[in-house]
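Re: that backbone. Tokens:
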């Protein structure tokens, strides 16, 4: 009998748009329900930004955008403003409008969240408290509306 050796190559399994949407809902719940004994914590900011990122990516995947484009730092990756711009190009506004005020707060959050910054993950607490943080409740309200208003579209794409 001959020994047969199989050497499989690395495979990739991508989560579905519904999976992204479900995790977005979980991150929003984590942000909204976060309690800390400290005056400031980056956790709810990070969680709401991740929620918005995943909700926008769920929309993009449902619209046929492929994972290589979504994962590319030059096109979307963890950049909330890139993800929003792409989603708006693909008619996100037919489902949910993003106000100028929400875009301003999202842009502030993006400056701490995006891949080349990651200030909500790797932070100097004293310096982070002095910077221009986004309004947390505005981002939480936007994330909740984004999830609610894209739900049926995302689920129908499954």
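Recovered sequence:
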């Amino acid at each position: 009998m001959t020994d047969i050796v199989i050497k499989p190559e690395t495979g990739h399994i991508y989560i579905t748009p519904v999976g992204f949407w479900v995790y977005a809902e979980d991150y929003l719940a984590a942000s909204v329900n976060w309690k800390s004994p400290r005056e400031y914590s980056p956790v709810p900011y990070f969680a709401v930004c991740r929620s918005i990122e995943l909700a926008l990516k769920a929309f993009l995947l449902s619209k046929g955008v492929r994972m290589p484009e979504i994962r590319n730092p030059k096109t979307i990756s963890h950049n909330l403003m890139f993800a929003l711009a792409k989603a708006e190009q693909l008619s996100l506004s037919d489902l949910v409008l993003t106000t100028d005020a929400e875009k301003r707060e999202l842009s502030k959050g993006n400056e701490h969240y995006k891949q080349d910054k990651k200030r909500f993950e790797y932070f100097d607490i004293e310096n982070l408290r002095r910077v221009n943080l986004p309004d947390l409740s505005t981002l939480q309200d936007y994330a909740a509306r984004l999830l609610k208003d894209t739900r049926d579209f995302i689920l129908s794409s499954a």
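The chain has a mean pLDDT of 89. The longest helix spans residues 136-156.
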